[in-house]
Amino acid sequence: MFDKVMESVKYIESKVSLKPEIAVILGSGLGNLVDVVENKQYIDYKDIPNFPQSTVAGHEGRLVFGDIKGKTVLIMQGRFHYYEGYTMKEVTYPVYVMQKLGIKKLVVTNACGGINTSFKPGTLMLIKDFINLMGDNPLMGANDERFGVRFPDMSEPYKLNFIDKAKGIAEELNIEHAVGVYAGFSGPYYETASEITMIGRMGADAVGMSTVPETIAANYLGIDVLGIACITNMATGIQKVKHSHERVVETANRIATDLCRWVQEIINAL
Ligand code: HPA
């Protein structure tokens, strides 16, 4: 894997000279952050040696390099989900590449279901911790010390001082927000009502099908993470209507404007 990652890195560095320290992974329907990036340079995933490819509708597959508020960033437009059939190593492959590109900070966003009944569709939740219910994780298998240690600490998966900064900015911008625990479920089906009861009792405020693998990998790789979960719907059994991907994307698009304002200022402040 190390040699593969280095080959991807070499290709990317041969195409762009920008040296970002901050990366952003965008969730479903949240891609409009890319519109505010200046001096953009794109690299399609399909052109990067050893890089996995996106399959889900509404997910583009490219890296966007450029500047937001004068800071150089790397945006992943389109991520890899475990439910697509990728291995956990493939899902998190881009994060390994980020480490070798010199990324130190990662902002991860997603669309997810709300379990905490004080939430409503449209709530933006800063993630303070995760529960991994995916039944797998990216660190399984032989460890390569060139990436990280065998037994990484996971006591602060989302950097507390990033959360504090993000909260302060949300207050300044008048963006309604919450803080909570995100449970990662493999999907691709939306959970059953009983699963949601269980996940809620475990202490999760929201549930989704992404973010946890990338967070685990980033912590292992020494990259500090801020996670923002966009509640696009209430979870099964709490919401009385049936789920639809179209509605999820529609709500994500509605929240995207606020999220975009918020993330720009966060990038500026991190
Ligand atoms: N559950 C899991 N993933 C999701 C949901 C949900 O309710 N909404 C958007 N992504």
Quick overview of this protein structure:
The protein has 270 residues and is of the alpha/beta class. Helix content is 31%, strand content 26%.
Shape: globular
CATH level-four homologous superfamily name: Nucleoside phosphorylase domain
Largest sheet descriptor = 5 strands, mixed, barrel
**What is the average per-residue confidence, as pLDDT, rounded to a whole number?**
94
Low-confidence stretches: none
- Structural class, by secondary structure, is alpha/beta
Strand % is 25-35%
- Order of H and E elements: HEEEEHHEEHEHEHEH
CATH fold description: Rossmann fold
The CATH class label is Alpha Beta
Strand order of the largest sheet: 5-8-7-6-9
Second CATH tier, the architecture: 3-Layer(aba) Sandwich
Explain this structure to me?
It is a single chain. By secondary structure, this protein is an alpha/beta fold. It has one domain: Nucleoside phosphorylase domain (Rossmann fold, 3-Layer(aba) Sandwich). Helix content is 31%, strand content 26%. The protein is built from 7 helices and 9 strands, in the order H-E-E-E-E-H-H-E-E-H-E-H-E-H-E-H. The protein has helices spanning 2-15, 88-91, 93-101, 160-173, 193-202, 212-220, 245-269, and strands at residues 22-26, 38-44, 62-68, 71-77, 105-114, 124-133, 177-185, 206-208, 224-234. A 5-stranded mixed barrel has the order 5-8-7-6-9, surrounded by 4 helices. Strand 3 and strand 4 (71-77) form a beta hairpin. The chain starts with a helix and ends with a helix. The model has no long low-confidence stretch (mean pLDDT 94). Bound molecules: hypoxanthine (HPA). The site of hypoxanthine (HPA) has 14 residues, from strand 5, strand 8 and strand 9. Residues 21-267 form the Nucleoside phosphorylase domain. Keywords: Glycosyltransferase, Transferase. It comes from Clostridium rhizosphaerae.
